[in-house]
Each structure stands twice: as structure tokens, then as C-alpha cells.
Amino acid sequence: MIRFMLVGTATAALVAAVTLPQPAPAAQSFESEQATLELETVADGLEHPWGLAFLPDGRMLVTERPGRLRVVDRDGGVSEPVSGVPEVYASGQGGLLDVILGPDHAETKRIYFSYAEPGEGGAGTAVARARLDLDALALRDVEVIFRQQPKTRGGRHFGSRLVFKPDGTLFITIGDRAERERAQNLTINRAQVIRIRPDGGIPRDNPFVGVEGRLPEVWSYGHRNAQGAALHPDSQKLWIHEHAAQGGDEVNIPEAGKNYGWPTIHYGEDYGGGQFGEGTKKAGFEQPIYYWDPSIAPSGMDFYTSDKVPAWTGDLFVGALAFRMLVRLDVEQGRIIHEERLLEDVDERIRAVDQGPDGSLYLLTDAPDGRVLRLTPAPKEW
């Protein structure tokens, strides 16, 4: 979009001339273990983009953490903000976060999104659903279906990835809100994977339904701050990764009713050094299938199912904030057997990773002038 102020014919012409859209920068080329890759910018000018979802026509929904939802065209055009987004707590890690299409989107146009919701006591992760009116760029019939309780002060550890299971139930990751002393308390919402129905109801087969002193929406717990979640393409099991403190970021496969340790057991230490908890292993607590030490600060993840790079099929791709890279994890029979680090020279905080309908990997960069990036094998590899 061309924007200028009319301050005289000559000046207006000059401003218009210098603000015309410029050709997209040429794709950058990178070598990986299996292919030569090309990385190109699809769209830019996004303020701390966080979540990404593909619409049936190939356009994308992108959230911006300050509280805006935008539509990105296939050619990179960025819409004005979609109206109807609820008020968000845009502070620290809080704001408008993940977005996904509903399983019935084709019929209902419903989308689901997570955000830091302000309220009594501070803020907490909330999930809402709404009908997306693309013609009017508006959300209709907004309905909150989950609220993290109690709310608390501060802008840390909202978790917030959303994943639908094939049975139509919704997984939500929520962080400990930087209250590790409450992370094992199952009478409140802290450090958990939540499972609900699309209308916010509780599935009858959730592990703590009818159990005194346990919230029925909890699927698993002891997860410090999970900002990546995806279903394994074969097993259809949920995989997540979660931020540790200083060292010990984890990859887990959360199972119903199980405890993944935080903060009782973990593989890191406190910020600035110093141990806490009871070591790395203890009876009754699950072990991660993989961990990083030092911490890479993982965010966003997706399994690769495209045939564009056949050697990647079934592998897991993870964005990294602290180490500013993309990680490929070689997954074989439910185990991670190898790690490859990609795009380190790009030097961008990778917030989201999603495979697009074209089989390419799409990345969001977490920056005041954030970008949507597309990663594909170079043409000679196709």
C-alpha cells in the first residue's frame, strides 16, 4: 500500500516515487545435509508475529503480539487488521498468540486463537473461537472457550500453542506464568497441556474427570512453558517442546495424566546459576525424549510431510529464539537420533514453523519488523 501526505504536487510525486513497492529481495541459498535450500521473504513489516494458519485459498492468517490479526496474500500483500479481536494483555511475552482453523472451518468459517487475557489479578492464557468474515475483515460471534485461572501479574510464560486432534478435541499448552512453586498444583491452571472440546466442554475420557483435587480439563502437567506443539503424522500423538530456565529445554510426548516434572526434576539450572528441584530423575515423573543444554529457547514446531526433500519426511522442525536458527530433528520410530542446525547466518529469532499446503516450510521471525519466510529446496533439487 502506498502512503503519503499531499503537501504539494512536486513533493507528493517525489514521496510516491520513493514509496512504490520494491521488488522482493532475491532468495538466499543455504546448504543443508540433504539439499540446497532457498529462503525468501514472503511478507514483512509485521510487529512481532507469533502464530500462522493457512486458509483454504492459500492465504495466511498471521497474529501480531500487540493484538492484531492480519491476512497475508500469497504474493505477500498484508491486510489491515481484522476487527473484533478481544483486548489483549500486550506486555512481555503476552499478547495475541496462536491461531488455527477449526476442524469445521469449511462450513462455519470458525477460527480459534489464544491470547493473554487481562482481568482481575493480572492476566492469563485464554482461547476464543470466532467466525472469520474475510469480506469485511472482521471476527463475528467471538466466544471465549477457555480461561487460565487464576490470573496473575507479570508478562511471562503463557505457553499458548493450539492443536486439534483427529477426534475434534483441542489441545492447549499453558505455561507456569513464572510461578514454578505452583506448577505441580492441579487445582489451578499452571504448566499444563489442556484438552477440551471445540465448544469448551470437557471430554469424558480426560484423565482427571471425576478425580477430587484435579481439574478435569488437564491432560498432562509439569510443563514449564510449551511454545511448540504438533501431531506426529503417523501416530497422531501430540508432541511438544518447552522452555527450561537456564539449560534443559525439552521435547516431550505428553500422555494422559502423566507428570513431566517441572520444577521437581529438570536438566537446567536457575538463571545466573544455582540448582533447584530434586535432580534430573525421580520415580513418578516422566523423562523428556530429548533436551538441549544450553537452552536454545525453542518456539514453534511442525513435522515435515512433504516429498520435496524425501530425506526429511517425518522429521521435526523447531524454531529457536535464543540461538536464532531453525533446527531439524531426525525422528525415527518415535526417537530423535540426530540434530541439524539451519539458517544460523540469517540471525533471526524464529517464532513459528509451519508446513504450508505447497509443501514448503514457512517461518515467522520475532522482531519489530517481523517477516514471513518461505524455505524450499532449490529448483535443481525438485
UniProtKB/TrEMBL annotation:
Keyword match 4Fe-4S: no
Q: Does the keyword Signal apply?
A: yes
What is this protein identified as?
Glucose/arabinose dehydrogenase, beta-propeller fold
List keywords of the entry alphabetically: Signal
Q: Signal peptide location in the record?
A: 1-26
Q: Which PANTHER family does this UniProt record tie to the protein?
A: ALDOSE SUGAR DEHYDROGENASE YLII (PTHR19328:SF75), HEDGEHOG-INTERACTING PROTEIN (PTHR19328)
> Domain Glucose/Sorbosone dehydrogenase: where?
46-374
